[in-house]
Design a protein that fits this description.
By secondary structure, the protein is α+β, with helices and mostly antiparallel strands. The chain has 2 domains: about 260 residues, no CATH class; about 190 residues, Nucleotide cyclase, GGDEF domain (Alpha-Beta Plaits), CATH 3.30.70. It has 15 helices and 10 strands. Strand 6 and strand 7 form a beta hairpin. Helix 5 packs antiparallel against helix 7. About 5% of the residues have low confidence.
Length: about 500
């Protein structure tokens, strides 16, 4: 707003240069000083809620409302002040030579001329004030983007509040720009050369003087506004581009500052809503991947929430920590949970590394499957590799307990290959991803036999044969056929040296 007196000084200078009336300079400066004092007083009042927030940190809502309304308030104040001081200057004879005879005009004609010229310049100054103050508000919105919550007034129930293109705030601003740039100069010159031509002649202005004065004055105001007009349109767009680039890089915590209260601000607000939905989706996905295996979580999302059951040949692995029950008796519940979390992290990473899926944790046991839900051509080969990798890692790893105590967690592993049925199984209210079949039951029965044989890895004949076909070297050691709980026929088992 304080730029208005400087703008007015330029317009007055153009008038003096075109008309050559240097004698009116003292009256112009006096009127200009009053104009500056009035704009300064308005600025103090208009900025007060923002200043209170800036100094005390209180009054957030009042500051937001004032910043959102400040451009319109400033434009209205500029128009009223210009109208007032234009009429005052005309009454003091600033724009009329002392020797001019005004008696040839009626009071209505003189009043019409005063109101017309004052209205034109009020519109020009309002145009300048709106976009100049709007630029300031854009800077404040960006500076306080985290402390204050700005939104577009058009954001209602998730849809545009008006279907008419002429009722949008951005459309109104573009219409105002068109009127000021295209209509007002033509209207001013047209009136000066027709209806108001006698008054211009009385002022001592020739036709070239009238055209020069009108063009220079309006062009001066328009050019002075170009910087602020362009920023009010481009800065919000660039802010949105920057936010899009941040999101493209994977930064879903970034949000675009809502720098305008028009459709550009609406786009930024809706962009933030979209990013918020993406952020929630990623949080949900992350939570699913923590409580389910990443493979199952991804398939669950891709399938729309339900994974259809399917039968497939797969390899199933069961692991169990040796003497964990005795160890857990010496630990607090929290220590037990922390120890198992560290152990599961080690085992799970090695299973995922070869393409397997951790299906479940049962106490201290890990249940894993290979070739479902994600297809894996060498599933038996991968399962055996994972078992060797797990034993290799645990052989050299100590897990830290509270107080600096370290423990080893020797593990037994049982593996079997055969047909399984896997998918979402459960009630209508609650479902889980699991697998069923004799191959699963046999893998669970094989794992405890490690204790009887003194081995770490036991596999069935089906797993051994399939792994050899898939390229695993023949490092298996055959054991005598053994009876497995729940099965009548004995099972041939193979151990694998680590």
């Amino acid at each position: 707003m304080l730029l208005l007196p400087l703008l007015d000084l330029g317009v007055a200078g153009i008038y003096i240069v075109v008309t050559g009336r240097v004698s009116v300079l003292p009256m112009i400066l006096a009127n200009l000083a009053l104009f500056a004092l009035a704009t300064y007083g308005f600025s103090l009042w208009a900025y007060r809620p923002v200043r209170m927030f800036e100094t005390s940190g209180c009054g957030n809502e009042q500051a937001v409302r004032r910043i959102e309304r400040l451009p319109a308030l400033s434009a209205g104040a500029a128009g009223l002040l210009v109208m007032l001081f234009s009429i005052t200057a005309s009454s003091l004879g600033v724009y009329t030579p002392p020797q001019a005879d005004l008696t040839q005009f009626s009071q209505g004609e003189i009043g019409l001329a005063l109101v017309f010229y004052a209205s034109v310049y009020a519109a020009l100054y309002s145009y300048f004030a709106f976009f100049a103050v709007n630029d300031l508000c854009i800077s404040m919105r960006r500076h306080w983007r985290d402390a204050l919550q700005f939104s577009s007034p058009q954001l209602g129930s998730g849809r545009w509040q008006s279907s008419s293109p002429w009722r949008g705030l951005l459309a109104r601003r573009l219409a105002a720009i068109f009127v000021v740039i295209g209509v007002l100069p033509s209207l001013l010159i047209g009136m000066d050369l027709s209806v108001l031509a006698p008054i211009r002649t009385l002022q001592g202005l020739s036709v070239p003087n009238v055209i020069a004065l009108d063009l220079l004055a309006t062009l001066y105001v328009v050019l002075a506004s170009v910087y602020f007009v362009s920023r009010s349109l481009l800065v919000p767009v660039r802010e949105l581009f920057a936010a899009q680039d941040a999101v493209r890089r994977g930064d879903l915590d970034h949000h675009a500052a809502v720098l305008a209260n028009d459709e550009l601000g609406e786009v930024a607000a809706r962009f933030n809503t979209m990013v918020g939905a993406l952020r929630e989706r990623e949080l949900m996905k992350g939570a699913l991947q923590r409580y389910l295996s990443p493979t199952v979580a991804n398939e669950l999302i891709a399938s729309g929430g339900v994974i259809a059951t399917r039968s497939v040949d797969a390899t199933v692995m069961f692991t169990d920590i040796e003497a964990f029950t005795s160890l857990s008796e010496t630990l607090s519940p929290q220590e037990t949970a922390d120890l198992l979390s560290a152990y599961f992290s080690t085992v799970t990473a090695l299973i995922h590394e070869v393409g397997g899926t951790v299906n479940n944790f049962v106490g201290d046991a890990v249940v894993a499957v290979f070739n479902v839900p994600a297809p894996l051509d060498d599933h038996a080969h991968a399962a055996v590799r994972a078992a060797v990798a797990i034993q290799g890692a645990l052989a050299h790893k100590k897990f830290m307990l509270a107080g600096g105590r370290e423990v080893a967690l020797p593990t037994r592993i049982g593996i079997n290959t055969g047909p399984v049925c896997a998918g979402s199984i459960g009630s209508a209210q609650r479902q889980g991803y699991t697998m069923y079949g004799d191959a699963v039951n046999l893998a669970a029965r094989i794992e405890p036999l490690n204790k009887r044989l003194g081995t770490r890895i036991l596999v069935s004949a089906a797993t051994r044969d399939t792994a050899l076909q898939q390229g695993f070297p023949d490092r298996f050691v055959c054991h005598d056929s053994m009876t497995v709980a729940g099965r009548q026929e004995p099972v041939t088992l193979y151990s694998l040296a680590v």
